[in-house]
């Protein structure tokens, strides 16, 4: 029979307290996302072109199954850092290109551009620079607080829907736009 020493007892209770705290956080996040689903179910819907239907949220149309809950979570809970860089674009406006260039510039001291081990040679830019609303769209959510600074994210959230915490944080926002006719044509070819 094993004997628990006093020093082991305190570490066991600390571990149990940490696990209880994590369980409480998970339950809290699940309640938050449940409330988002309830809000989404009340939004006006229209037949979608790419998805079965779209929901209008704060003046913009979103695919409710893809990223709307992530947008809501960002608006209410995301804490930006002044060193963050956020790449914002509408879909089919050069997002992949922008991600590759920004990643290469920000990581230029970490990787030799001629090295075979450079991430952009083996990894899609969308994996190197994640979409913030996709990281945070469903529980369990990614813990973006653990990422080292400077963090690099991308988003398709319109600028006017970005929370004031991002707009006033001092973080850099790089916005790329494209002629709407070209965006429509690109989207048409992409989806058909």
Any overview of this molecule?
With 192 residues, this protein is an alpha/beta fold. It has a single domain (9-191), classed as Rossmann fold, CATH 3.40.50.300. The protein is 45% helix and 13% strand. It contains 8 helices and 6 strands, in the order αβββαβααααβαβα. The strands form 2 sheets. Strands 1-2-3 form a 3-stranded antiparallel sheet, with no helix packed on it. The chain has a 3-stranded parallel sheet with strand order 5-4-6, with helices on one face. Helix 1 crosses helix 2 (68-77). The protein is globular. The mean pLDDT is 86.
List the helices and strands and how they pair.
Blueprint: H1 6-42, E1 45-47, E2 53-57, E3 60-62, H2 68-77, E4 85-89, H3 95-106, H4 119-122, H5 125-128, H6 132-135, E5 152-155, H7 164-167, E6 172-176, H8 180-191
Parallel strand pairs: 4-5, 4-6
Antiparallel strand pairs: 1-2, 2-3
Helix pairs in contact: 1-2
Protein name: Cytosolic sulfotransferase 12
Shape: globular
Query: Which CATH architecture is right?
Result: 3-Layer(aba) Sandwich
The CATH homology group name = P-loop containing nucleotide triphosphate hydrolases
Sketch the topology as an H/E string, one letter per element.
Answer: HEEEHEHHHHEHEH
Give the uncertain stretches in residue-range form: none
Fraction in beta strands? 5-15%
| CATH class category name | Alpha Beta
CATH topology: Rossmann fold
Protein name: Cytosolic sulfotransferase 12
């Amino acid at each position: 029979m094993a004997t628990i020493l006093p020093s082991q007892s305190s570490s066991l209770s600390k571990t149990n307290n940490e696990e209880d705290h994590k369980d409480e956080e998970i339950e809290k996040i699940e309640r938050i996302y449940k409330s988002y689903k309830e809000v989404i179910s009340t939004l006006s819907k229209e037949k979608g072109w790419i998805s079965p239907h779209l929901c209008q949220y704060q003046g913009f149309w979103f695919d409710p199954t893809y990223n709307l809950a992530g947008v809501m979570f960002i608006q209410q809970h995301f804490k930006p850092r002044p060193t963050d860089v956020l790449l914002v674009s509408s879909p089919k406006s050069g997002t992949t290109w922008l991600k590759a260039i920004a990643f290469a510039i920000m990581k230029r001291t970490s990787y030799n551009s001629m090295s075979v081990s450079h991430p952009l040679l083996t990894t899609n830019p969308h994996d190197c620079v994640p979409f913030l609303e996709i990281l945070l769209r469903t529980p369990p959510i990614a813990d973006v607080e653990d990422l080292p600074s400077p963090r690099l994210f991308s988003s398709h959230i319109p600028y006017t829907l970005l929370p004031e915490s991002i707009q006033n944080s001092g973080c850099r926002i790089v916005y790329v736009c494209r002629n709407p006719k070209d965006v429509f044509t690109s989207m048409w070819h992409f989806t058909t």
